[in-house]
Structure formats: structure tokens, C-alpha cells
Amino acid sequence: MKGMTVIVKSISRWVKMLIFLFGIYVTLFGHLTPGGGFAGGVILAGSYILLMLAFGREYAEDNLSLVVTSKLDCVGALLFVAIALSGLLYGSAAFFYNFLHQEIQAEKVKALDLVSAGAIPLSNIAICLKVGASLFMVVLILSVFRCDFSAGEREVS
Amino acid sequence: MFYIFLFFMIFLLIAALIAVHTDNLLSSVICVGAIGFGGSLMFLFLRAPDIAITQIVVEVLGLIILIRATISSDKTFISGQREFFGIVVSLALLLAISGLGLKALDGLPNFGTPAFVAAGEIEETIASQEYIEQSLSKTGAANAVAAVILDWRAYDTLGETTVLFTSILGAVVMLRKKTKNTGAIEA
Amino acid sequence: MLYAMCFLLFVIGLYCALVKKNMVKIVIGIMIMEYAVNLFLIMLGYRVGGVAPIVGHEDIRNMGKFVSESVDPLPQALVLTAIVISLGSLALMISICIRTYEKYGTFDITRIRRLKG
Lengths: 157, 187, 117
Fold this sequence. Notes:
The structure holds three protein chains of three kinds.
Chain A: H1 6-28, H2 37-55, H3 57-63, H4 66-90, H5 99-106, H6 120-144, H7 151-156
Chain B: H1 2-21, H2 25-45, H3 49-71, H4 84-104, H5 115-120, H6 127-139, H7 144-152, H8 154-175
Chain C: H1 2-19, H2 23-44, H3 57-61, H4 63-69, H5 73-104, H6 109-115
Helix pairs in contact in C: 1-2, 2-5
């Protein structure tokens, strides 16, 4: 698994940044345009999976190792729960209360701005981390396992 | 507009029939990809751009995972079916479900008039109507879908993240090598 | 008509999952069923000549027109989570298939049952 040909490598070296930026854009503008945390997270995972397919598993694992991925996964989940709990603390005592929305409205932000919508962009970022990290982790694990694929044949016979 | 949907549904049905019928696993997986991308286009024409984006990206990842399972295994040509008794029971179950489903199709509203409009004539407050009207003023999010999944029905998203976490954890546990001494994830 | 075709897609997936012998074929059948259910739920919220449920700059001044034209956002929000969950469950099923292949050397479920013990 040393990667693909030089054409694939040199193209994916340029395209990976564009895919990554597009994932960030889709996540951040999730409350104004189509997209959101789910799609953005899967796109971010897709940029790393492109790296993995083009350059081999070791290169991708140098960039984002399995330990870091599982930590990012947990950070995303905890961030989402923290947003929910802070709604309980600051707002009118309701789980998932959109606690930032009232303060932002007091600042006279126009509708359809990037920092409108209170806690929804933060939740989008949390969901994006969660989904992207876990999906990249599962593809990484699946590709790690490939080396042992012929071991089963001997065990059966 | 109706004929576009008809065309896509026929495309999906043909792709599904080929995916079920063919013996070669790789072409079956490719037909599943055709179903996914056709479904994504159909979501776009059904005015659901969020779902279209998510579907097309998820489809690429799912194809990578499926091809990963099929391409390195040599015995991909497993044809034939299960034993006779199992098939008879399965087909009877299939017929029962089809009959019940076709009966249930009568109670649906016509295509093009959503269910919440039909229900709105009877009752006063409908959830979907509220979501469309007040997504901008109450949450500030212009995208009503984002407002629903992250504000009004965020419990659903919390449960979704839990399910995703558990299933990925199951896959990792299933696939890691057994390391007896350390017990750490050696992948 | 379209609902019936959607249901037919579901039945094809169910047939594939019930009758076929190959494990990956069963996974494919379950995936086809998922597509059919997602498509059906989105179709239920469609409105003829509708617009996507996203407020644009022009719609702010004219909310009444937007409200009377927008499609239903609720099924879209529920399907959005279901699609991502389906990817997670697909990964779980495929990992079970790979483990079984490594153990028994085949995807054939009848032979797996025979080798048990």
C-alpha cells in the first residue's frame, strides 16, 4: 500500500485543500445555506480518505493518527452535550435552549448574517467534528485490516 | 415535473433489480451506487438540497466501504438461494407485507400535497407550519432544516450522535487485532 | 403512483435481504430498503411548485409567499440523521462480514451455519 501513480498523487495534492475548505464552508454556513454539520463532517472525512487512498495509509496516519481521531470524536460529542447543558444553565432552564440567540438579538445583528442563529453554528461545528472523526476512523480501521485478509484461509483449511 | 420523478423512479427500480439479480458482487455494489446517486438527484428535484448534499457524500463513503469488503475477497461469485423451506416462508412474509403496504397506500394524500397541509385544514396548530413560519424569527437560522435538527428537535440529533458513536465503536471492536498483553487498541 | 413505485423498491430490497445467500448481498438489500424509506419520507413532504425550506434575502420581505410555497422541513430533518446513521450501521455490518470471511473463508451464510461448532 504505497499509494497510486504520480498523476493521482499530484492532483490529489491540490484537490485535498479545496475539499477541506469546502467542508469548512458547508459547516460554518450550515444555518444559512444547504449543508450543515453532517454533510460538512463527511466532506472533511472525505478529504482525509482521499489522502489515504492516494498516498497510502501511513501518510494519512502521519497527518491524523488514530489516537487523535478518537480524541476528536470524543471532543465533538462532549462539545455538543456541553452546548445542551449550557442552555440548561444560562437560559430558561431548558435542555438545548438556544441561549445565545437572545443576546445576539440584543446586539442588533441583521438576519442572514454569519453570526446569527445563536448556538446553532456551534452545534454544527460539534456535529461536524463528531461525524468527520468517526467516519475517518472507521475507514482507517477497515484499511488497516486489509493486510491480514489471507490469514483466514489457512485457519479454515 | 411529475415525469422527471417517474423517470428517476424507473431508473432506481432497474438499478435495484440488477443489483439484486446479478451474481457478480462488484457490479452489484456499482448498481447500489447508481441507486444512491439517482436518489440524490431525485432529492434535489424534490426541493431537499440538504439531503441531496449529504446523500451524495455519504454514498461515496459507503461505496468505498463496500468495495473494500468485496474487492479483496476472491470468492465473490456465490449464486443460488437458501433452502426451500426458508424461501417459502420468506416469500409468504413478502406477500403479506406487500398486501398490507398496498392497502396502506390508499390512505396517503396525493403526491404534491404534503400531509401537513391536509392536516392543517382540520387542526389549528401544525408542527411543520410552525417550523416554516418561525424558524427565522425564533432561532435566527434561515435554513429551517438546521433549525429543526439543532434547536427544536436537538434531542433527535443527540440520540443520533450516540447511535453513530456506538456503531463505530462496534466496528472498531470487531476489527481490531487481539492484543492480549496491553489491551490497548493496536488497530 | 410514485408512492407505489417507492414501495416496490422497498419490496425488492426486502426480497434481496430475505432470499439471497451471500452476506454482502444481504447488506445491499438492507441498503436498498433504507433508500426506499428515505425517498418515501421526503416525497411525503413535497409540494407541487414548492421551494426549498431556506429563507433567502427576498423572502424576508415577503414571508407569506414563502410560507405558502415551502416544502415540509420536518421529514427532511429526520431523514438527514437517518442517512448518517445508515452509514454507521453499514460500517458495522461490513466489519461483521469481514470478520466472518476471515474466520470461515466464505461469504456464504449456509456454509457458515454448517461450520459452526
